[in-house]
Design goal:
OB fold (Dihydrolipoamide Acetyltransferase, E2P); five-stranded antiparallel β-sheet; 37% strand; 138 residues; alpha+beta; globular
Length: 138
């Protein structure tokens, strides 16, 4: 990552407000999804925390996630302009996160649909993960 891009990312108000998530945002700039995982109980968790929500250990580390998951639940917001799809995605690693489904035809979104993380830049400047529906063969 160029120094200019890293500097732009670090001035993003959201990323700047939570310095403990710096590694997450730096990985997002490389289109990589990171999760926090516990070194004691070895369980990943979402959202990133400095203390493991499973066992209370402060020994948490960043680990690279596959970016693959399945739709657990979703809702289409038709009254917005443009309409969008919010979803709970269960990652292969276990944690469930709330996200937007993008780059997918609305009828292809369904419970248990396979999804893959994709990264898009926000208006504030940082890249963040979204998900798109993929075929199982992808």
């Amino acid at each position: 990552m160029s120094d200019t891009r890293l500097q732009d990312h670090l001035t993003d108000p959201f990323a700047k407000a939570y310095p403990e998530t710096r590694e997450f945002w730096e990985a997002a700039e490389r289109d990589e999804l990171l999760l926090k995982s516990c070194e004691d109980c070895h369980q990943p968790h979402w959202y990133p925390r400095v203390v493991c929500p499973h066992c209370g250990s402060p020994a948490t580390i960043w680990v690279k996630a596959s970016g693959r998951g399945t739709v657990y639940s979703y809702s289409r917001v038709e009254r917005a302009d443009p309409p969008y799809t919010l979803a709970y995605v269960r990652l292969e690693e276990g944690p469930t996160l709330i996200t937007n489904i993008i780059d997918s035809d609305w009828p292809s979104v369904r419970i248990d649909a396979s999804v893959q993380a994709v990264f898009r830049r926000t208006q504030e400047g940082r890249k963040m993960p979204f998900f798109k529906v993929v075929d199982r063969a992808d």
